[in-house]
Amino acid sequence: MATDRQPGTAAARPFPDGVPVLVDPAGALVLRAHAPSDAADIVSACRDLEVIRWTTVPVPPGGYTLSDADAFIEVVAAGWASGRRLTWVIEAERAGRRRFCGSIHLLDDGFGQCEVGFLLHPEGRGRSLMSTALRLVRGYAFDIAGFEVIRWRALPGNWASRRVAAAAGFVFDGTVRRSLPHRGELRDAWVATLTADDPRGSTAWTDPPTLQDRRVRLRPLAEADADRIVQACSDARTRRWLVSIPQPYVLADALDFIELTRESAARRTGLFWCIADPDDDRYLGSISLEGFGGYSGRAEIGYLAHPEARGAGVVTAAVRLVTGYAEEQALVGISVSSSGVQVQAVGSAK
Ligand SMILES: CC(C)(COP(=O)(O)OP(=O)(O)OC[C@H]1O[C@@H](n2cnc3c(N)ncnc32)[C@H](O)[C@@H]1OP(=O)(O)O)[C@@H](O)C(=O)NCCC(=O)NCCS
After folding, report:
1. Is any ligand 1 atom within 6 A of the Cβ of residue 258?
2. What letter does residue 36 receive in the DSSP assignment?
3. How far apart are CA 346 and CA 338, in angstroms?
4. Does any ligand 1 atom lie closer than 6 A to the CB of residue 261?
5. Where are the domains of the chain?
6. Angle, to 10 degrees, between the axis of helix 66-82 and the axis of helix 39-46?
7. Could you give the angle at the alpha carbon of 225 between the alpha carbons of 288 and 210, nearest 5°?
8. Residue 326 phi, psi dihedral angles, 5° rounding
9. Does ligand 1 have an atom closer than 6 angstroms to the CB of 118?
10. 143: nearest Cα among 188, 99, 103, 197
11. Is the CB of 125 within 6 Å of ligand 1?
C-alpha cells in the first residue's frame, strides 16, 4: 500500500540519465528529460497568453527569458533528485523536426497521491498530444511509481484542459471554492480524480453535433453569440414566455448561459445549439434538449428566436433537426414546456 509513504520516496531518479523515457506506441511523441537545448522553446511556450492565463508560469517584468528557462530546468533536475516533482518534456514533430512541444509533471503530495500539471507550446496544440502524454504518464504513475490517485485541478473555464483530463479517464468531481493558489490569490478550482482502480479508457464526452439543412445550421454556442443573445433575451415577447430569465438581461448573463451549455454537455444532462444562419453564421436563436441523461429516455426541448429571425421558419427547421437527432439517439419522448403548458410528443415532430 502506498498510503503511508512520504512525498518523493518512491520516485526519485538521477537527472537526466535516470529519467524514464516514455514512448507513445503510435509514434506521435516521446516523454524525456529536459535538456539545456530546450530552453528557447520553453521561453516561447511560457510567453504564450493561454499558458500565462491558465498556469502559474512566472511572469517577470519584461517577460519570461532564457535565464528563467535555465532556472526552471534546474528545478526540474531537483524535482527528479528528490522524487517530489517528476517533469518530462513532450517531444514531438513541430516546424519540421522533433523538438520540445510542451511539458507534463506529477507532483507527489505523499500518501500515494500526486497532482498532474501540463502545458503545450501553441504550435503543439490541436493534435491530441496532451491526451496522449497524459495517458503515458498515467501508466507510469500507477504501474511504475505506485501512486494510488492522480488529481487534476484547473481554473474553471479551462475546457481544453478538462477535455484532456476526460480523454485520460479522469472523473470530474466538481468545483472546490477558493482552493487553487493563482498569481497571489486563492481561486476556485475544478477538480477531477483518477484512481489506480479506475478503467484506463476515456470518460465519455458529448458535444452538440453540427446539424444542418438549407435554412439553418445548428452548432455549439460561442462567446461571439453573446451580444445577440442579450438582444433576444431583452425582447418583450421572449420575456413574456421565458419568465425565468434574468431581468434586465446583460452580457454577463449571456456569457454565464454559454458556459452553462458547456457544463450541461460535459455532464451529459443537456445539449444546447446556436441556430445559426448557414450563410454568415449569425445567431438566429437557441435550441436545447435537456434532461436526457435520466433513465426514462425523455428530454425537454426548448427554443427561442432572435426577434429579427421570427416568422421565417427557422425555429421549425431547427426543431425538425433536433427531433431527428433525438430519434437517432433513441430518445422515446420529447416534451415542450412553455409557461405552464406542457406538450408531450412521442417520437419526432417531423
Ligand atoms: C490544455 C492544453 C494542454 C490542451 O492542449 P490541446 O492541444 O487542446 O490538447 P488536445 O489536442 O489533446 O485536445 C484535447 C481535446 O480538447 C478539445 N479542446 C481544445 N480546446 C478546447 C476548448 N477551448 N473547448 C473545448 N474543447 C477543447 C480538443 O478539440 C480535443 O478534443 P478531441 O480529443 O475530442 O479532439 C493546451 O490548450 C494548453 O497548453 N493550454 C495552456 C496551458 C494549460 O491550460 N494547461 C493546463 C492547466 S490546468
Report:
1. no
2. G
3. 17
4. no
5. 22-195, 211-345
6. 100
7. 50
8. -60, -40
9. yes
10. 197
11. yes
Is residue 50 in contact with ligand 1, taking CB distance under 6 Å? yes
120 lines ligand 1 (CB under 6 A): yes
List pLDDT tens digits, range 249-292. Answer: 999 999 999 999 999 999 888 999 999 999 999 999 999 999 87
Taking the CA of residue 45 as reference, the ligand 1 atom at the shortest distance is 39
| Ligand 1 nearest-atom number relative to CA 131 | 12
22-195 and 211-345: identical CATH topology: yes
A 10 A CB-CB count for 267 gives 12
Residue closest by Cα to atom 26 of ligand 1: 160
Cell 453535433, located at residue: 209
Alpha helices in the chain (DSSP H): 39-46, 49-54, 66-82, 129-139, 159-167, 226-234, 236-241, 251-266, 314-328
- Classify the C-alpha dihedral 289-291-297-301 as positive or negative: negative
What does the mean pLDDT of the chain come to? Answer: 92
| Ligand 1 proximity of 182 Cβ (cutoff 6 Å) | no
Burial of 259 (0-12, 13-18, 19+ CB in 10 A): middle
* First-to-last C-alpha distance (Å) of the chain: 59
pLDDT digits (tens, 9 = 90+) for 40-83: 999 999 999 999 999 999 999 999 999 999 999 999 999 999 99
CATH tag, 211-345 = 3.40.630.30
> Do 113 and 1 contact (CB within 8 A), yes or no?
no
Distance between CA atoms of 314 and 345, rounded to whole angstroms? 20
**Rounded to the nearest whole angstrom, what is the distance from the C-alpha of residue 202 to the centroid of ligand 1?**
15
Q: Which CATH number fits domain 22-195: 3.90.45.10, 3.30.70.2190, 3.40.630.30, 3.40.50.300?
A: 3.40.630.30
Q: Tell me if 161 CB under 6 Å of ligand 1.
A: yes
pLDDT band at 349 (very low <50, low <70, confident <90, very high): very low
